Amino acid sequence: MEIYHKIENINGINQTVIYVNYPDEYEFSLDINSIKKNVANVADKIREYALKNVGKISDNTALLVLNGIVLGTLAITQLTTLPKKEIPQENVEIVQVADNIEEKTDDEKVEETEALKEEDKTEENVNEKKEEKEEVEEQKNNNTNVTTNSQNKSTPQQKNNTTPSQPNNTTKSNNTSPNNNANNTQSSNSNQSSTQTQAPSAPPQNNSSSTSTSIPSQNVKLRLTTGEVIDITLEDYVVGVVGAEMPASFHTEALKAQAITARTYALRKTASGAILSATISDQVYNTETQLRQKWGASFDTYYNKIRNAVIATKGECLMYNGSYIEALYFSTSNGRTEDAVNVWGNSIPYLKSVESPWDVGVSGYSQTKTIPMSEISSKLGVNLTSISQISINSKTEGNRVKSITICGKEYTGVQIRQLLGLRSADFDISASGGSIAFTTRGYGHGVGMSQYGADRMAKAGYSYAQILKHYYTGVSIVKK
């Protein structure tokens, strides 16, 4: 079977066309079962091809031609949705380590209509907040050479508790950096902050004593933005973090996944007696008053939806070799997540690059930021006068810029993203008068769980356990 794609001019418009040539015997058979099998085989081959070449296909749609016959236009996001068989159910069993285990409650009955409307209204604002938080966090990390960026932590909207988030209603927190980028993925889609951030510091190694698995007290200490330190139950804390870090309009299974990453982050940090911060220096936490202000008339719907997701996963956390993981997250991927070693220099077994095709094509997935050469020169300390002075040398497994040379000075893609305030380290460059146009794909540091990816996976039928097992390699979901 032969599959390839190319750009063709159709009715004056350049469009991606995927050609599939399969054996003639696939079409001639009286055996219905054989025909069904052949059709499924062709579909699987097309999906596999799309997954391998998603980074090379810039269009959101493609024209599909089978043996010379035009079948119609398909969405790339549909082609690149991994079949569920690639994330086996048997790999997502929850390990129970306590006698008193409460049954999970299901909040699937919560009405989704209002949530979807809210997502449309808030996505841009959330993304903007996330980016801001993430970059501020990364600057702090850079200056101290420590810990984690909060940009990606929140869900699509939130900044990153560990990764930038894309969805509408979230803000990114420190969890996105190593810890924050993933969890704070605000919305990676629309308005992104141009705040300049410095390189994030490396997250603690997973063998750190701070990953003790001892069962913590039911309450945690939290420093509010006012400076006041309060005692709050762990689950109430998680409700406030999920409400801040991920859009409430996201699918329930994505909210559950976010709840577990937020809880894991809190358990890891407080195991050593540390006080949590309600800001991006840890995970962003919103009080009930703040959530009321943010959600307005939708407060009851959203609050109950998130609280039900937290209760349904009560006590569940992510562990690797008996230790709490660095539960990083971010807003939106470029089609793959990034290996932590390429962002913070530490190789962490459960934070490896994995496919995330669900993100491709979401609102704000690709954006262009045009920066005057004089501004680039000022921020980088060089004298840039021509695009010929810029060359991208190599890319990472996650298809982000690994090495780039500007005016004879070599930088990592992460450094350029932070110094120039880009949404992602996956970018192309082009000349635009006296400026350079950076076209980025995705939003956030890219390490750990993609919030938008989690939402799209959930909508495709994946459970929260499958989502977490996909983004965090080899981890166990443990109930305390």
Word description of this protein:
The protein has three domains: 2-80, no CATH class; 113-358 and 446-479, no CATH class; 366-441, no CATH class. A four-stranded mixed beta sheet has the order 1-2-3-4. A four-stranded mixed beta sheet has the order 5-19-9-10. Strands 7-6-8 form a three-stranded mixed beta sheet. The termini are far apart. The protein is globular, with a radius of gyration of 22 Å. It is built from 13 helices and 19 strands. Residues 88-174 and 176-217 have low confidence and may be disordered. With 480 residues, the protein is an alpha+beta fold. 32% of the residues lie in helices and 20% in strands.
What's the helix and strand layout?
Blueprint: E1 2-10, E2 13-21, H1 32-53, E3 61-66, E4 69-75, H2 76-79, E5 94-96, H3 113-144, H4 180-183, E6 219-223, E7 229-233, H5 234-245, H6 252-270, E8 276-277, H7 288-295, H8 299-312, E9 316-320, E10 323-324, E11 329-330, H9 341-344, E12 366-372, H10 373-380, E13 390-395, E14 401-406, E15 409-411, H11 413-420, E16 427-432, E17 435-441, E18 449-450, H12 451-459, H13 464-471, E19 476-479
Parallel strand pairs: 2-3, 5-19, 6-8, 11-18
Antiparallel strand pairs: 1-2, 3-4, 6-7, 9-10, 9-19, 12-17, 13-14, 14-15, 16-17
Helix pairs in contact: 5-6, 5-8, 6-8, 6-12, 6-13
